[in-house]
Amino acid sequence: MVNNLVMDRYVEESSLKMNEKSKQHIRTLLTKFFGMKPDVAYNDLTRQDLIEMLSAFNATSIITFNSEKSKMNDFMKWMVEEGYGTDEPLKILGDITFFDLDRSHLYDRYYFRDYEELHNTMDEAFSERGSEFDTFRSAAVLVWFGIEIKYLSNILKEDIYEDKGYVVHPETKEKIMLPPLAMYVLINYRDSDTYDSSKFGGSVMTYAKSKFLFRSYKNAQFTTAQITNISSSANRAAEEIGKTFQWNKIYLNGIYNRMYQYEQEHGDLSRSDFDKLKVFFGKPDLKPTSQHKMDMARKFEEYQEFKEHMYS
């Protein structure tokens, strides 16, 4: 256990390099990290202890893991320099990698095997709420199939071509093919004049007249922030079934699923398939620099772990 006064001293002495928000962030991380093992003395921390402590950050990407581990490393190095502990825990921490952590619980909570599982999960979570979450459902469909949330507000109703089975991406103008189950969700939402709402004690609200797909009773066009925020109420409904919807993970999950489907038809991808990987990850114009190749290889390794958990 590390005394809170020691953490406070570190944060204050590091404050010249931090704004107030950064100071609060590092204090929160340190408290969460060492709070995982409150009964274990700092010098007695084992490799397994530190793995469990790092797991508390719930990192599902190598970049996030490395960033959080680096912050803990800086603090533990400072502790050694200031005489608060030995360097043994610091050495152990340095040897722990992203792939040493068990993320199975995160995949179970945030990810889905395929679109059908996402669809069925939303059905289960919202089963007693009528059409209240139709906006969220439609946004989740489009994010899964490759339209980032920052582009959703500009999608027009006329961008949905149900007879041809695709939606036009509002930015790239790409035709994004959708399966019938996903298309049904969008058509139902697009063509509805009213929706169930929990506002005002429960009522039926009339959508504002609009050419845009994402709207409400008082907004003819949702902003990106408004679409982002609708996940809060959706997650309160999903809590009972142990699932959490996060936009970035739904987007990434859709990419992973498309990669897996590609491999079933064409054989395994590899970390060196830069030209294919950059397209899957939505960066077709990425130049083949050493850094970009490394970034794509890292994303591929993250996909490999997801695939092992979901499809093995």
Textual characterization of the structure:
With 312 residues, this protein is mainly alpha-helical. The chain has 2 domains: 4-102, DNA polymerase, domain 1 (Orthogonal Bundle), CATH 1.10.150; 110-247, hpI Integrase, Chain A (Orthogonal Bundle), CATH 1.10.443. Helices cover 53% and strands 5% of the residues. It is built from 14 helices and 5 strands. It has helices at 4-13, 20-35, 47-55, 62-81, 88-94, 104-110, 115-125, 134-144, 180-190, 224-229, 231-238, 247-266, 274-280, 290-311; strands spanning 160-161, 166-168, 175-177, 194-197, 203-206. Helix 8 (134-144) packs across helix 9. The protein is globular, with a radius of gyration of 23 Å. The chain starts with a helix and ends with a helix. The mean pLDDT is 94.
